[in-house]
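Repro:
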Amino acid sequence: MLPAVKYYTLYFIVLFIAVLLFNISLPAQSKHKTKNWPEPVFEPLTVADGLPENSVRCILQDHLGYMWFGTQNGLVKYDGYSMKVYQPDPDNSLSISYRQIHTIYEDNSGNLWIGTQHGLNRFDRVTETFKSYLHNPHNTTSISSNFVLTINEDKEGKLIIGTDKSLDLFNRQTGSFKRIYAEDSIYVRALLEDTLTGNLYVGIKNKIMIFDPEKVILKKNDDFKMNSELGYINSFVQSDDGSIWIRHTKGLSKFNPVQNSIQLHHFDFSDSDNIEYNFPQLIEDSNGFIWSGLGNNCLISFDPKNEQFKKFKLTPNEELTLSTVSSIYQDHSEIIWVGTFWRGLYKWDRKKQKFNRLSFDPIKPADGKFNRVNSIIEDSEGIIWFGTDNGLSSYHREAGIFRNYQYNIRGKSNTVTDIYKDELGILWLGTLTKGLVKMDPASNTYSFYTNDQNDSTSISDDYVRFILPDKNEVLWIGTWAGGLNKFDKKTGIFTRYIPDKNNPRSLSNQKVSSIFRDRNGTLWIGTDGPKGLNRYDKAKDSFTAFGYLDRINSVNVNTIYEDNNGNFWVGSYANGIYLFDRNSEEFVYNINQRDGLTHNTVRSIIEDDSGNLWISTNNGLSRFNSQIRTIKNYFTSEIFEENYYLKNSACKTSTGAMLFGTYDGFIMFHPDSIKDDPVPPQVVISNVSLLNRPDEKLEYDGFISELKELNLSYNENDLRFDFVGLHFGEPEKNQYKYMLENFDNEWIDAGTQRNATYTNLDAGEYVFRITACNRDGVWNEEGASLNIIIPPPFWATWWAYSFYVLFVLGVLYNIRKYELSRTHLKNQHKLDEVKLKESEETDRMKSRFFANISHEFRTPLTLILGPVEKILARSDDEIQKQANFVKRNATRLLVLINQLLDLSKLEAGKLELKASKNNIVSFIKGITMSFESVAERKDITLKVIAAREQIELYFDKDKMTKVMMNLLMNAFKFTKDGGQITVIINENDDNSVRINVSDTGQGIAKEELPKLFDRFYQVDSSQTREHEGTGIGLALTKELVELHKGSISVDSKFGEWTEFTIELPTGRRHLKDEEIVEAEEPIKEEILLEKEEIVTSTVEEVEENRISDEDKNILLVVEDNTEVREYIKESLKDDFQIEEASNGEQGVRKAERIIPDLIVSDVMMPKMDGNELTRNLKNDEKTSHIPIILLTAKSEQT
């Protein structure tokens, strides 16, 4: 605490202590009436704290939360921890124009404007430089005067500048000034925009004028003219009700802008105006009070409701000062700042003053000592009694009067240690040296009960520490060194209870600290010593002591308390507070400093109306919530120099107020008024710098506190972030948390540290986030953030890696080219063989079998009818061969018909699910592995991956076989040689099984994916489709999966991969009873035969197989379907020498080489269709004469 605050604190303590120490003769009483006005405590900030000068003319808080102070010697920026000063520099044209600052203003765009005694300045936050605007007598568009006193802004964003001799309008776009009004020595200090009417009011001398923005003039109205005796208008402020308050030289006026009326509130604080002071500022605080400054370092506060003024002195310990209040301001967190001439800056933090004290007329104590409050009680009449080191005092709340009583006029000690007021109004006082004192307030008479060594029925010790009433006019008296006494008021006899080593049922210690009766009527006595808790057994007139926790620790009792829930609490000397279980007779719970208690020595315990325990200690107050066991601590250093409280000096009044006695008086508060400060700090990232490179400044575009993104170079990866929480209520208690996203996994608790460092950050994008809380732990949830982008070095960029890859590939290519060239030279004679081998590899590429649904039906029918005719005319061997031909194609046709029938049943709702419980892993593996021969033939890697070998699932084997067959057939059809097909089976967390079927085929275009499961939809409808189909398979697959209450989806990247995902629920809750069967349905054979289509539909280029039969004409058959091609060959081999080609391209090559006599060709084929083949051959002179027969299954092409 700064020295000035201590002096101020002592002043208010003296106000209280003076009454308690005021000595009067018995039976006289001293009376002092309180003043019910809050007494603020002001904390000073001076040159010692960083101010360049102790005269502060103006104050502002900007939108970021920084405080700005204009002094006689420069501009000051304050963040609660340090001050930065901006002063004029003759060698720097970008410094501020003058040292004497008169006004600071922030416009709607966040620009800071500073009016000085020599020009207007705009502050650039990015460069921290100033742009000055000075009067030029040769330029009519320059500012009229350099003496700038006030600044405001109109609706169009133009600045209104008040100077000592003019009112100017400044256009920021053109940088020009226009004079609105001019008059010598007018000193325009008062500008205000009316929030209700939109008028801009200007105070000029003793007149209120209105600025007309359209005509750029001031309107005069004599109705607004104030009495000239009241002096000049110095300041405006508008209250929440729309009233405009005017501070003038001699008082305060209320102006109604609607009624054009003025109401004067005159104040006479002539002792405060002992020096000439003509420009006080005016504010309205958050409670609706109007504040302004006076001379003699004073403030006035006006309550509009009661229409009362109150004067406060910033330095109450000084009778007269030459200082004046020059400025006043309330910041975002409701702290009031006061600037003065010559005495620096003062801060009043009302939320820090959580605890109040009674204020009464000061009376200087004769000896200057502070007064201890040893005991506090409230009687049935609401009078509060204080036992102090200077006697007994009472406070009558309704009358607002303190009275002081002393029982020992001539003696050295008037210390009252405890108080009890009985039902007759008699006060019983425990004293330090006079034993028990009986006082009758009505007659002001005293009776003393002191120790008589010769009388065992007298009190055992004259130092009384505690008094507790009992039934039958009995008082229990605890003493310092004489144990416990039971006092009979009727007989005046004391019965003593003292420790007896020979009696284990005696009191445990002679030093009694507290006495308590619980709700059951049991008497408990707290003592010093190891077994400090004693229970009195009235029937046996004996004691049971508790306190040993173990061989080392014990409970030395200071205070005892039972809360409203029946919990029994014991406050100890050095071990915190204990919860004592009276049934088990054990200490079951302990709270101490490690748990958050302010100190381990507990002085008093009382409970508020909300069930919270208030615990006073040797170092402050703790509020303990016994339900959730949380602690909130409070320290009263702003009231007293120490946080030390006295034993059992506490009281809860009938109104719920709490009082606690200390060495320096007492504190008083209502628990309902003790609230956390709800305003969190405004968080600002104040700087980002390179670690260990202070001379290198980071370059960025904009003001760092408002910057959203910071782009760095690759070697700027050792960073230090500086930040600050702008809350000025005890800023040293602000706490911080930060994290760097994509680097930190969680928030880092920085405590009160205001910087964070990171080293060796990898290239990438990061987000630095910072948040802060105030002294009461209220966090700013939004905080501040800054995106950090660190690019990789040029040798680690994508284009560098691309270059590396291309370079390596180039080297490998050239090596390979050289090797191939050598091989070519050495093996020229093998070139034809190599080319043929490459051609055979190319011929193994497969295509889809079916052209469309018409093709699918007509081709098998053709192949069935032809062999049937042959069967009637051929031998048995030939019949067997043709019959197999018939069987395969009839089966294929049956599959297609079954698919159509299944779709029809699904649509009609007649397809039934027959699910049984099976291992889905082994089932899928069995189906997948049946394709191994196909995979080997096409050189495709086929994998099945399962999370575990046994996953039980209810499914219909027949239908799931169709699903898997369709997906695997699609995968094989679309996957080229050397590719990969993978089936993955996993269990999900949501009680489902996921099956993924992926391939590395040609993929599906993004726009085709939403239509893929539509019926009869085909991705490729061209004449040269390599992969044919009906458009039925995937539609049926989707319906069958959904029949299982599952789902299927597809994802693909065109040209690279395709993946189908099936989700099937586990268990049987999703199935109806009739959908579950015990016996497994057999898998239909024709379903498994479908995979043969992959082999038979694979389009291979036919090997050269010339038959030397020069007597027959040559027939070239060009057909992509192997069986159709075989059928034609078998049908015509007796009449023709047959040559074959599996696609249009191969057909053209063979035709050009062998020049056949006739060509029979399909129309729809991969690589080149029949129409294009015909055009190529007819356009070639060598082959143009060859007749060509085209075959098609499409009816429109027939």
